[in-house]
Design the sequence.
């Protein structure tokens, strides 16, 4: 399938990220054209379509029937991803799906079969791969500027408990998949090796609702890679002053740091001292990365090449998350089982 002018997009799921993707496709991606938006809430679909001057649908399959829609962005709850990706594949539509790919490994395998059968392109929305700072870290590591990597360390802290369906690990995959899948993806990408084993210390210290639904709110994950690099990820669902994300890779000759717990663009100086504000929420922090990942996906369709974040990348993250849950249940180190795609 060739595209000489623009790729026509439809966006389904018009929560904050779906609306962000819609706006980016409308005004930021030169070779993309936003054709339609879709949401089960009629008023929301109408409102977004009116603001962007595009068609709207409440039925996803009806949008898939639109001949002008070449590709879809799926920004719906995770537990809906599998069926929607497979349906899009059946209609021959390329798919950009927000992370994580699916809730379980088995669902990801079902998706893989459909993608292969119908020959569509699929990209998972791990936008940190397109962020300038993470890209610079990747380049410096590959060029040997920190010597041989020894340890990957990541800290992820959200300002509060996830809302609605995301608080239920059966629907979202819980803290490991819903919150920390970006960190797993960065670990694999920056180190350039697969995660081999995981051991998790986790508990419920803050949110009773999260505990009742079977999720955790604070976890520390120790893991190893096939190439013997060490890994540590600490994640929590509550941080006193907002949002914090930090990543580092320590090597034999140096270290790279990405991120901060403060907004370095603003501070307040008063007699009590210099006060820094918390880091900007992820939509602001990674706005340019959201733009670049959609630009890259559009280019992969036009040039008929493999997307930069593949279905296999999405599957590997789910495998790590499932190993983490197994470690929590049995209190032991767990090997990550890898499935072929």
Sequence:
């Amino acid at each position: 399938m060739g595209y000489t002018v623009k790729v026509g997009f439809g966006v389904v799921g018009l929560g904050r990220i779906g609306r962000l993707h819609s706006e980016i496709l409308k005004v930021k991606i030169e070779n993309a054209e936003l054709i339609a938006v879709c949401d089960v809430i009629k008023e929301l679909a109408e409102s977004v379509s009116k603001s962007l001057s595009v068609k709207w649908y409440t039925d996803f399959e009806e949008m898939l029937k639109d001949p002008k829609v070449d590709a879809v962005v799926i920004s719906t709850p995770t537990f809906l991803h599998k069926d929607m990706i497979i349906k899009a594949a059946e209609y021959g539509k390329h798919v950009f799906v927000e992370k994580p790919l699916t809730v379980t490994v088995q669902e990801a395998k079902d998706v893989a079969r459909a993608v292969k059968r119908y020959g569509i392109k699929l990209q998972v929305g791990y936008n940190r791969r397109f962020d300038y700072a993470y890209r610079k870290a990747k380049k410096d590591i590959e060029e040997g500027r920190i010597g041989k990597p020894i340890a990957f360390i990541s800290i992820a802290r959200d300002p509060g408990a996830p809302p609605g369906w995301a608080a239920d690990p059966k629907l979202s995959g819980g803290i490991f998949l819903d919150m920390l899948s970006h960190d797993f993806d960065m670990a694999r990408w920056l180190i350039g090796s697969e995660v081999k084993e995981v051991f998790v210390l986790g508990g419920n210290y803050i949110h009773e609702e999260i505990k009742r639904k079977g999720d955790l709110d604070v976890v520390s994950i120790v893991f190893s890679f096939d190439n013997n690099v060490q890994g540590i990820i600490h994640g929590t669902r509550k941080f006193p002053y907002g949002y914090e994300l930090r990543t580092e890779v320590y090597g034999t000759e140096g270290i790279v740091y990405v991120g901060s717990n403060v907004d370095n663009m603003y501070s307040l100086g008063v007699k009590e001292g210099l006060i820094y504000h918390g880091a900007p929420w992820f939509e602001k922090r990674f706005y340019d990365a959201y733009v670049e990942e959609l630009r890259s996906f559009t280019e992969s369709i036009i040039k008929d090449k493999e997307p930069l974040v593949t279905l296999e990348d999405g599957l590997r993250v789910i495998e790590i998350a499932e190993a983490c849950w197994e470690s929590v249940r049995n209190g032991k180190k767990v090997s990550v089982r890898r499935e072929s795609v």
User: Anything to note?
Assistant: The mean pLDDT is 94. The domain at 7-128+288-310 is CATH 3.40.50.720 (Rossmann fold). The two ends are 23 Å apart (CA to CA).
